[in-house]
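## retry 2 of 3
previous attempt timed out at serialization; input unchanged, resubmitting
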Amino acid sequence: MFIKHFLTFGVAAIGTAAMPSSASNASLKGAFALSGATEKVTAELSIEKTGPLSRELLITFADKTTGKRIAYFDEELAQELHVLATDSNFSSFLHEHPGKVGLDGRFRVAMKFPKPGVYHVFADAVPTGLGQQVVRFDVSVDAPAGMEAAQPVPAAKEGTDGPYTVQLDQSGLQAGKESMLNLTVLKNGKPAQDLGLYLGVPAHAVFVGTDDLAYVHAHAMPADAAKAAHGSHGSAHDPAGPVSAQMMLHAKPPHAGTYALWIQFMANGEIRTVPFVVNVAQGS
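## retry succeeded, writing output
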């Protein structure tokens, strides 16, 4: 059953242990998380507890070759860093932005977690001259011992958030190949007419592999832009034009298997999040 901002299915975190990161100034080393890319950075995360289930995350990147802290980042969709998180059961999703890197070379982002648990936190940035880099941290937020996995549910063709429904054609998804997915946003059963750009694009899609936490962050474009230049981090949308309810999404899942997927878009001035479970076929 899909409900607002949540989906449930049974997968335990792979290679993840609950760590005592709820204490102030706990420090974690990141794991490179961008399949198919060259690892050019290292990253560390310090955590400060600011309240029940709330934390301030302090993230630093360093050049893997020189070891020097990175101070300059390119903006990707108006942000220097995207911080995305899901719990070990993939039942919740957070997407925050810390703004500009600080003078101390740190990004600071406030996160309010919905419940105790172990969270996979992805830091997605473009250090100047190094290209897109993604680092994952596994963060314990007051996680109880012996947490049970949720019960599985089958992949769905549509998910909902309030009056909005996303219809997703996932039949073309193949491992290791750039696949095109068509999606339609409905409001009360009709194509939504109140959509706006979210960080400069019609919609965002974040895939996380349930077996190895493989990460893909893709952006949608209007369905009529099929012949325009495209890519997982590009959009052909006219910022001055209306946002169509019919969109297309190009994504390249690195391997076959099950992925948690969240599609985010702006509707009536509010960010909406629709969860899915998708099965990616082995490429031919």
